[in-house]
Amino acid sequence: xxxxxxxxxVRFALAAFFGFSVTLVMNGCNRPDTGARQPIAFSHKIHAxxxxxxxxxxxxxxxxGTAAGIPSERLCMGCHQLVAANRPEIIRLRDAFxxxxxxxxxxxxxxxxxxxxxxxxxxxxxxxCQKCHGEIQAxxxxxxxxxxxxxxFCVDCHRQHAAPVDCYxxxx
Length: 172
Hints:
Blueprint: H1 4-26, H2 44-50, H3 55-58, H4 73-80, H5 88-98, H6 119-124, H7 130-133, H8 152-160
């Protein structure tokens, strides 16, 4: 027979699992092996790998808060007015930019709504993006590098870096 405390823990775990599963489906991450299919093909291998563009140039939100952010079409067009301007994917990007239509990018790394994550403290501690995102500079198509549904990855990393592991650090 379960104690009331154990019953509460089991109910919380089931609710968390269900909530995370629904979040994955709702955010379009229906391809866990490769990530979500993007509306315009984008290669981190070309941008971050071959051309060595730093992650924070495009994902400036990591310095300011919770979300890395997706670069605006304006930022992309800063280079692509001239660079590879006649390639089909760049033409699609330019068309969206000229029509003032945002690109409906799909999330690749999804965490549950019950988890609070802030990029800034991780960037401030100079933890490389590759720690969580894998060898992103080698990915033609971004895919999840770690299982974010398993909080053991995060807890192990926090312990390794002497960061807090109490529940309220990530669950608010």
